[in-house]
Amino acid sequence: MRALRARGKVVRALVRPGSDASGLPKEGVEIVRGDMLDPPSLTNAMSGVSAVVSSAIGYSRRRKGDSLKTDFDGNRNLVDAAKRSAVPRFVFLSILACDQAPNVPHFWAKKVTEDFLQQQGVPFVSLRPGAFLGAPSGRYREWMLAGLQKGQVMGMTQGGVRMTYIAPDEVARALAMAVDEPRALGLRIDLGSDRPLSGEELTELASRLLHRPMRLRTMSGGGMRLAALFSPGIRGMLEMTRFFQTGKYVADTRLQGELFGPVPKVEDAAHRMLQDLGLLPVKAAG
């Protein structure tokens, strides 16, 4: 939303009942209460808008009761509502190579929504970013920070297999530009940094930036496979890491560069992430 506001856009946010949105009006954002799983509640949100931007996910289970139902049914409801209101453009935050990963549920949900947009004839832009290289929030932030402080880099691949990373704010910038970039309409656009990295290369980059030895830690292992037998969420994560290991999770950034400007360097994303985590100093402006 900040990236849209920075481009001078009037922003309306669809916020679920019970979610705290007290900070949004201070940033000039209009609030409309509704739920993607409650189709009638979406009508007001669509009234008079020039573009819908959907980045909603349920698979991460940020709130009790969240599930992949949001990713499948929720986005379908949002597309239907946009079609009824004849919204001129639907900007969808997808996932890199989602159409090649039928065994990864949250990846496949993105592919299904992309196809539904096309089938319904809703004018759309689908952005497919690689893995976020940025500081998360909540317990994930604490987990990542603790690992880095112990000299561990969490890599998603091993054995030299490369994958694409991108800074979250670069994704936000592309989303904001996609709402009115005429050349983007109807396209599925990969987003990434200037080059993919293997787990070993990511570890070397962190070591270089932090000026101390780091070691690679991956998410594979017997413990994770055992846990996957009892948890659909962990099972999905395990399938995702298996997919990463195929080497197919690599962005073709040519369209990104043509439409949204120079493709960012992966070093910049890593540097910013370490600054956000408090592991590198932030230089004062000027």
Describe what you observe in this structure:
The chain has one domain (2-276): NAD(P)-binding Rossmann-like Domain (Rossmann fold), CATH 3.40.50. It is 40% helix and 15% strand. The chain has helices spanning 2-6, 43-46, 68-84, 105-119, 138-149, 168-178, 199-210, 222-228, 232-244, 254-260, 266-276, and strands at residues 11-15, 29-33, 52-54, 90-93, 124-129, 131-132, 152-155, 162-163, 165-166, 188-191, 197-198, 215-218.
Please outline what is shown here:
The protein has 286 residues and is of the alpha/beta class.
What does the secondary structure layout of this molecule look like, with pairings?
Elements: H1 2-6, E1 11-15, E2 29-33, H2 43-46, E3 52-54, H3 68-84, E4 90-93, H4 105-119, E5 124-129, E6 131-132, H5 138-149, E7 152-155, E8 162-163, E9 165-166, H6 168-178, E10 188-191, E11 197-198, H7 199-210, E12 215-218, H8 222-228, H9 232-244, H10 254-260, H11 266-276
